[in-house]
Structure formats: structure tokens, C-alpha cells
## 1
Amino acid sequence: EPEVTQTPSHQVTQMGQEVILRCVPISNHLYFYWYRQILGQKVEFLVSFYNNEISEKSEIFDDQFSVERPDGSNFTLKIRSTKLEDSAMYFCASREGPNTGELFFGEGSRLTVL
Amino acid sequence: GIQVEQSPPDLILQEGANSTLRCNFSDSVNNLQWFHQNPWGQLINLFYIPSGTKQNGRLSATTVATERYSLLYISSSQTTDSGVYFCAVASGGYQKVTFGTGTKLQVIP
């Protein structure tokens, strides 16, 4: 069964460092998303991406964050200068179309900022 | 934006018991999914259920979109059912998915 894959599964970084989280969505999917979950809290929407541009973003997704689909398969989330409060699990997700229901999630990348 | 509330927030069950988890949402939605977050943090798809009823083994779900709620039924609970259950609804032009507040389930032997 096709799946969304994410790397790394866990990354530890120092405050102020840049981090790139990588995702490979399901191959025929056109809509891509990043979500974040701080430990013990609910899953929060960060950004959606379609047709090589951001279609929607939340208040959390400030200038420190960026997304890119550099090569037609990977979908990346970059955090330019990490803060302690960026420590969270980051989930990538994809779906086939806007009204083609199911959203498929990757296993998550746990980011720890020290 | 759309609000998604789940109840109860916490639930402790004896193994073998049945339970019903509820998800209420504040506006019309196109899609609804139920997820189980396991102890390793992974989000496991349980149901894609924008309307109607579905069953998968000991789990079943019902969504009444016109009344803006969905129910997840767990029968004959097992310790492996422990974790957090989220409903997530999709609305808007690009189908942004909004997660509920979650129900933390603990099944004890």
C-alpha cells in the first residue's frame, strides 16, 4: 500500500540552527500538508501546498518557516532559526485531490530543540 | 475557523468494555476522518467517514453531517486500543483538515 514517508524520524538541534524536514508524499497525490503536534496537545495545521505554491497557512507558519517541492517528489519543511518552542512532532500529509477525501499521514518527525 | 470538540477528554476502561467517543463540529464539512495515535506518536487512519456508518472489526463509526457530529464505537476493548483518538474534519477550498481536541483512552487489564 502506498504511504507517505518522512525523514528524519527524530532530530535534535541547537536553538538558532536551521532544520529541514523531508517528506515523500504518495506519488499520484496533488495536495500536500504539514502539521505540528506539541507534546500532549492536539495536532495543528501549519500549511497546505498545491500546484507548487502555498494555498493556505496558519498563524503558526511565520517567516521562520518555508516549504518547497524541489524535485517533484520530495516536499520539505524548513525552519530557519529554531526556537525551543519549535520542539514538536511534525507530520506530513497528502491527498489525491481537493474533494478526494482521505488524508494520508506520514509517521512524523520528532524535533527536539535544545 | 471551524471548531472541533471531542468528548470525553479522558476515558479509562476495563478490558472488554465498550465505549462511545463523540466528535462535534461547528460548521459544514466535506470530509471526516478518525485517527488513533499510538504510544509512538503515529497517526493511524481508522475511518474516512463523511457520512453514514462504517465498521471495521471491533470498531465502527457513524457521522451525521446534518447534525454536525460523529461517533466512534469501540467494542470489547483491548489494552492495545489505548492511546489518543482524534477526529479530523475537512472544510474550505483546499480541504484543510482541522483536528479535534482528542480523547485519551486507557484500557486496563
## 2
Amino acid sequence: EVQLVESGGGLVQPGGSLRLSCAASGFTFSSYEMNWVRQAPGKGLEWVSYISSSGSTIYYADSVKGRFTISRDNAKNSLYLQMNSLRAEDTAVYYCAREFHGDYYFDYWGQGTLVTVSS
Amino acid sequence: EIVLTQSPGTLSLSPGERATLSCRASQSVSSSYLAWYQQKPGQAPRLLIYGASSRATGIPDRFSGSGSGTDFTLTISRLEPEDFAVYYCQQSRYTFGQGTKLEIK
């Protein structure tokens, strides 16, 4: 059974940092591209970042470029999102999502982890 | 930048009725990369449709997708109580529509 489990969310002050993790199981993690998607309270879905299966190709939304860093450790079946210089508008539930073999849609999602940026 | 506009914002229907949800792109997009998701309160999104018209694994056949170019449709033929949720379209990984809330009338 495919499972994605996010962790690392919490309350952080503006300008602070947080590192999210996504533990994957039930599939060959190293064969799949992965993404982070976020959802602000009561709002819609916003794609945040993409990483290829090997980690060699990375993309970011303009809203997080220069502040967030996506990475993965295929030996540990884990995906990460390092978030720096956090702003109030980064407050959201952050989901990791598996991309189906580069076809641009997400076939499995984690349950999400809440990040709250507030003083 | 392609923008996806979903309509209506809220759709009020009764169980057993047919639901038609629209997703319009600001410019022509490949139907191969058009997907639909369902999200219930407190849950992660669930993939329903990919490639504009292919049902994901385990999705009931009352859900169908169609369309091409700039206009795409998600149809639920006969609404079941568990279908009332928010639905999002997505194009090419990066762009989501703003969502349509399907509520019980």
C-alpha cells in the first residue's frame, strides 16, 4: 500500500525556518517524481515545488523561489522541504504528492502537515 | 501563465441528480495533462480523472471527464451522498483551478 506521511509542521515566527519531511513507503520511491502542494486555510490548492526521481531537476513556484528548497534522500525514501524566511502568507497545510511517471498528475497524496507563520 | 477557471463556484444538487462541473483554461492546453481531484473536509485531495477522461484506479464509473482545448467537464451521473465535496481541476502539474464546491441541496 502506497503511503506518504508528512511531518515537521508547526508554529513559527515570521522570518523563521522550518523543515518538512515526507516518508514514503509501499512503492519504489527512487522511481517517482515528487511534489509539494499547499493549501492555505479555506483556500484552494497551490503547487509549490517539484523534484525529479534522481533529484537532478527541481522547480519552484514563484511565490517560494529563493526561500524554499526541495530535496530527497532515495536511500531513506524521504522527501524534504526546507522553508526559510517564512511569511504569514506561507501559512497552509503542506502535502507531499507522488507524480505519476512524469504525466503531471498526482496519484497519491499524504495527509498533510500544518505550517502556521505567526508572531 | 495558464489560468484555470472553474464554474460554478458552488453547485447545489440533490442525491441522484446529475452534476456538471466546468474547467476553462485561459489558453489551449493538452488534454493529456488535465486532471480532476476530489477533496473532502479535513482530507487530502484524491485523484479522480487524468488525461481529461481516464478514471483513476478505484473511481466509480459515475464519474466521467471530457473536453479538449480550453473547455473541460467533470460529470457525475448520479450523485451519491459521499460525492458532496470540493472538486479541483489541474493542468500540467503547476496550475490548479480555484475549485467547485458541490453541496447538498
